[in-house]
Amino acid sequence: MNEGWQPVRAGPSPEDAPPTAGRPQTLPERTAAEADARKARPGVGKRPIVDHNFMASRGQGDLQFVRATSADVALVVAVLDQAAAWLTAAGIKQWPDRFETEWVAPSVERGETWLVRIDGRTAGTMTLDWSDPLWSDRAGKAGYVHRMAVERWAAGIGRAILTWAADQACAHGGATLRLDCVAANRGLRAYYEAAGFQHRGDVEVGGAPGQRSDDGIRTLVSRYELPL
Questions:
Q1: Sequence-distant (≥ 6) Cβ neighbours of residue 206 within 8 angstroms
Q2: What are the C-alpha distances in Å from 219 to residues 30, 102, 166, 209?
Q3: pLDDT of residue 218
Q4: Using CA atoms, how far apart are residues 42 and 152, in angstroms rounded to an integer?
Q5: Alpha helices, H only, 10-142
Q6: In the list 33, 51, 172, 213, which could disulfide-bond 207, CB 3.0-4.6 Å?
């Protein structure tokens, strides 16, 4: 079995899904001990809520998270470019018009980038890493979500991806899941807030939207944090 393969069950609610032996544990399947341990931590109950019924109504099955390899870089870039084109067409200045391979390859080589699949078909991608200088003023171990993109045919799985990322951050000892977006993107900010993320201030970063650099351009971004 692929070491990076981890499914998220798009069916019953987490509370209704009992553990099943003989296959990898799905996201909702937690032991009583894990549940008790999580209750003792601050922020419990603020995790993103996956709309399983919506996913099922769209004919979407299990989400599979597969760690991207060097052979997948072109595919990751293609998914990001598709999302970037959609954002540009919608007049949303969140990402550059297209992504370069050299922006994506390092995180793939570090094992931080994932492909999200539904029934074997690539539905999206995301990068989850463990440090970000944008948050240097805030202490605590956290997971950081970057470059999350969903194919248009799979629209609606974003909450499930965030839930999976939060679970991974918790498994790595993180107390929070963090991300950022362009401050002017009101729709995306509202989306994150509805998913339980808390606004942690706006900061300027070097570079155009979605591309940090020292080229003299400055972009105001909003930071968001989800207690785990």
A1: 212, 213, 214, 215, 216, 217, 218, 219
A2: 40, 21, 26, 6
A3: 73
A4: 35
A5: 32-39, 52-57, 73-89, 101-109
A6: 213
Beta bridge partners of 226: 177
Of the candidates 105, 178, 169, the one whose C-alpha atom is nearest the C-alpha of residue 139 is 178
6-174 topology per CATH: Aminopeptidase (3.40.630)
Residue 153: CA count within 13 A, CB half-sphere: 9
Residues in the chain: 228
Contact 95, 210 (CB under 8 A): yes
Instruction: Please report where in the chains the tokens 């400055």 appear, as a residue.
Output: 218
Which residues have C-beta within 8 Å of that of residue 49, sequence separation ≥ 6?
A: 159, 163, 195, 196
Amino acid at position 218, single letter: R
Residue 196 near residue 226, CB atoms below 8 Å: yes
The residue ranges of every structural domain in the chain are 6-174
β-bridge partners, 145: 128
Q: d(Cα 70, Cα 79) in Å, to the nearest integer?
A: 15
* Pairing outcome for strands 176-182 and 142-150: parallel
Report yes or no: 158 and 192 within 8 Å, Cβ to Cβ: no
Distances (CA, A) of 48 to 3, 70, 106, 217: 25, 30, 28, 33
Measured between alpha carbons, how far is 98 from 110 in angstroms, rounded to an integer? Answer: 22
Mean pLDDT in each 10-residue stretch from start to end of the chain (228 residues)?
A: 40 28 36 42 47 47 92 98 91 86 96 96 97 93 97 95 97 97 93 97 74 65 97
The radius of gyration of the chain from alpha carbons, rounded to an integer in Å, stands at: 17
